[in-house]
């Protein structure tokens, strides 16, 4: 039973014995990220940080909370939006390229698993094509019989 379900459905009474407290302590998840250690910087982490910064910048540039200062000209608004949009797009592309690099590195490090996945995909595609061909053959036979029969 999940901890949330236990909290919702469980009783409000305190634990009855020390052994219950030990069981509960053992069931708690272990903190995998150590609070005293900082995670190492990675290109993917940097790309995601940049994406979040650009997203916040884009949202702040299109804020509609009163009082909204009137822009000097419509060209200024277009320019600000265009620049923000390009920065956000570039950040999205950076995140995608980092995921692609990680995927390619994994494929190079685990060629057997990649081969198995590729073979499974090809087998599924062959089955799908055979099913579609059989269905098309059945439809053509039926229509020929209706037309000529």
UniProtKB/TrEMBL annotation:
Pfam families: Med28 (PF11594). It comes from the Eukaryota. Its main location: nucleus. It is found in: Nucleus. InterPro entries: Mediator_Med28 (IPR021640). GO terms for cellular component: nucleus. Keywords: Coiled coil, Nucleus, Transcription, Transcription regulation. Residues 1-21 are annotated as: Disordered. Belongs to the Mediator complex subunit 28 family. This is Uncharacterized protein. It comes from Ancylostoma ceylanicum. The gene is Acey_s0211.g2169.
């Amino acid at each position: 039973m999940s901890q949330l379900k236990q909290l919702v459905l469980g009783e409000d009474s305190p634990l009855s014995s020390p052994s219950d407290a030990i069981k509960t302590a053992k069931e708690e998840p272990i903190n995998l990220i150590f609070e005293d250690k900082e995670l190492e910087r990675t290109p993917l982490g940097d790309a995601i940080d940049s994406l979040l910064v650009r997203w916040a910048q884009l949202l702040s540039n299109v804020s509609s909370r009163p009082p909204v200062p009137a822009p000097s000209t419509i060209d200024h608004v277009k320019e600000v939006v265009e620049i923000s949009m390009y920065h956000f797009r570039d950040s999205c592309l950076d995140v995608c390229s980092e995921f692609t690099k990680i995927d390619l590195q994994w494929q190079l490090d685990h060629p057997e698993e990649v081969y198995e996945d590729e073979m499974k995909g090809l087998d599924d595609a062959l089955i799908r094509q055979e099913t579609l061909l059989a269905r098309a053959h059945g439809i053509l036979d039926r229509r020929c019989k209706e037309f000529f029969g």
